[in-house]
Amino acid sequence: MSVFSQSFSPCGRFLAAGNNYGEIAIFSLSAALSPDATGLSQKPVLTFTAHEGPVFSLLSADCHLLSAGNGEISAWSWAELIKKVRIRLKDSFTVSADLKQQSGDNSLIVGGGDNNIHILDLEHGVFKSVLQGHSDYIHCVSVREREAEILSGGEDGAVRIWDSRTGQCAHCIEVYKYESCARPQYGKWISCLTTDSDWMLCGGGPSLSLWHLRSLSPTSIFPLTGCQRQATFYQDMILAVGEGPFVSHCLLGGEVKAQIPCTPQSLNTLQLNTNSTEHRVLTVGGSSDHIDVFTNLSYKAFSLRF
């Protein structure tokens, strides 16, 4: 089993995780973090089949949990997860990337295996626009709210920056062409991408790198081995996971401060629970049925199990 995706409930008391078998498990963080927790507290309170293939991405939007699989997006009520509202795509393609919500107009950003980005109107359940420009499978998307921009990265090695108001591509950064980032032995694909104000993190085949978006230039290259599959900004650090059984703690200047051991031998996903101060944890999943839980970033506290 491999865990591909995670998302915390809006209240921060539950964690949803999706695996390669199309299943979603719901864990109670309240029970798992209780002083009286037992082994049973670390098991799902609910498991159900969401898709025929892997659950590539999960996202909590208002009162619903959105899940992406092959050719479909499903919406599940957090209040009553056994009731589902299925949104069928008009054209068949593989939902391959992150789901990201654009807060201003209640839109969902979907990266597709048809090389395009689709903008879904969540209120009406219809697609309202398509962003075309990538020449291969899209792996990751991110939203830069303040600038009304959407960023996307894919198998073609490009990070594209889109003006969400016009649907036009404003900039295209071919990361693998920068000598400081290039790692031909791993390929050119972009597997992780995230933004924070004027900064962008991206990596995959190329080294994980920090970019200044106003100058469109890399400022730090992180000397991590293998391909990184997910990274996030956290206070004055960067947390990253990928090939290898550890969470890397990196400083913004490019230094690797620490690598914290995890249970899975290869990692796909990490999530910080910012929805609840009482249940503020980091969760990490990958090539195992274990999801490691960190109450302190310096060590693993325990593991949830599918």
Secondary structure blueprint with pairings:
Layout: E1 3-8, E2 14-19, E3 23-28, H1 29-32, E4 46-49, E5 57-61, E6 64-69, E7 72-77, E8 84-88, E9 95-102, E10 107-112, E11 117-121, E12 126-131, E13 138-144, E14 149-154, E15 158-163, E16 168-174, E17 190-196, E18 199-204, E19 209-212, E20 217-221, E21 228-234, E22 237-242, E23 246-251, E24 256-261, E25 267-272, E26 282-286, E27 290-294, E28 302-305
Main features:
Methylamine Dehydrogenase, Chain H, 4-stranded antiparallel β-sheet, WD40_repeat_CS, mainly beta, WD repeat, repeat, 53% strand, THO complex 6, Beta-prop_NOL10_N, 306 residues
What's the domain count? 1
Give the termini separation. 9 Å
**CATH domain class:** Mainly Beta
Q: What would you say the CATH architecture is?
A: 7 Propeller
What are the low-pLDDT stretches, counting only 5+ consecutive residues below 50? 89-93
Describe the structure.
With 306 residues, the protein is mainly beta. The protein has a single domain, classed as YVTN repeat-like/Quinoprotein amine dehydrogenase (Methylamine Dehydrogenase, Chain H, 7 Propeller). 1% of the residues lie in helices and 53% in strands. The protein contains one helix and 28 strands. It has one helix at 29-32; strands at residues 3-8, 14-19, 23-28, 46-49, 57-61, 64-69, 72-77, 84-88, 95-102, 107-112, 117-121, 126-131, 138-144, 149-154, 158-163, 168-174, 190-196, 199-204, 209-212, 217-221, 228-234, 237-242, 246-251, 256-261, 267-272, 282-286, 290-294, 302-305. A four-stranded antiparallel sheet has the order 1-2-3-4. β27 and β28 (302-305) form a beta hairpin. Mean pLDDT is 91; it is low at 89-93.
